[in-house]
Write a structure and sequence with these properties.
Distance between the termini: 48 Å
Radius of gyration: 20 Å
Number of helices: 7
Largest sheet: 6 strands, parallel
Structural class: alpha/beta
Shape: globular
Helix content: 25-40%
Strand order of the largest sheet: 2-1-3-4-5-6
Number of strands: 6
Strand content: 5-15%
CATH architecture of the largest domain: 3-Layer(aba) Sandwich
Number of domains: 2
CATH class of the largest domain: Alpha Beta
Order of helices and strands: EHEHEEHHEHEHH
């Protein structure tokens, strides 16, 4: 299996990809190879990534006789003999294009439906995402499977003592509070969370 790790560094995709690869590499039942991505940067790097993904990668997969290509995002080659498996978190690029003011948005909106149609199998992280995918049209619902994200209990292991220390550190001990984890982007709903907090009389 070849895993395409061409994802934006220091994002949730990057973290999930690295940890999942680490876990999969412990299995001896199959050979796993991580295909290095291009550093995200200016227009030349982006064009280089296009050439790499849609020309170099399919040819390299064929040369190595790879049995499966897994893409952790919905951006993947449009052709090739190697079966493609895609993991989809959401289709926000299709639902909210205005929230992504990138000159590449038209490319992604053109590419994503075609990648999903071409994929041999699609992993959706929720029933909501599965409904989005099958609602596109042209995507066989039988090849979409829901696999919920796991939790690394070695990292996420809350305890009452740690929670009390955290509340004291941030000055919210004995107070109601809301923790927001995510990008400070309009599509994340931060404004709505702030309004809800005010209704609930949660101090800023």
């Amino acid at each position: 299996m070849v895993w395409d790790v061409d994802v934006v560094p220091n994002t949730s995709f990057d973290l999930w990809t690295r940890r999942t690869l680490r876990a999969l590499q412990q299995h001896r039942t199959f050979q796993l190879e991580a295909w290095p991505g291009w550093q995200i940067g200016g227009p030349l790097n982006r064009l280089g990534a296009l050439v790499r993904r849609h020309l170099v990668l399919p040819l390299e997969l064929q040369r190595r006789h790879a049995r499966v290509l897994h893409a952790p995002t919905v951006v993947a080659p449009l052709w090739g003999r190697t079966p493609l498996v895609v993991t989809v978190y959401d289709l926000i690029l299709l639902r909210l294009p205005a929230a992504h003011p990138s000159p590449w948005i038209r490319y992604y909106r053109w590419l994503i439906p075609r990648v999903l149609q071409r994929a041999a199998a699609i992993v959706a992280i929720s029933e909501s995402t599965r409904a989005e995918i099958t609602g596109l049209g042209g995507v066989d619902a039988n090849k979409v499977r829901v696999v919920y994200p796991g939790v690394d209990h070695g990292v996420f292991c809350p305890s009452p003592m740690a929670a009390d220390a955290w509340r004291t550190r941030y000055g919210v001990a004995g107070l109601p509070y809301i923790v927001y984890v995510g990008q400070l982007a309009p599509r994340r709903g931060r404004t709505g969370s702030t309004r809800s907090a005010r209704v609930r009389h949660v101090p800023p």
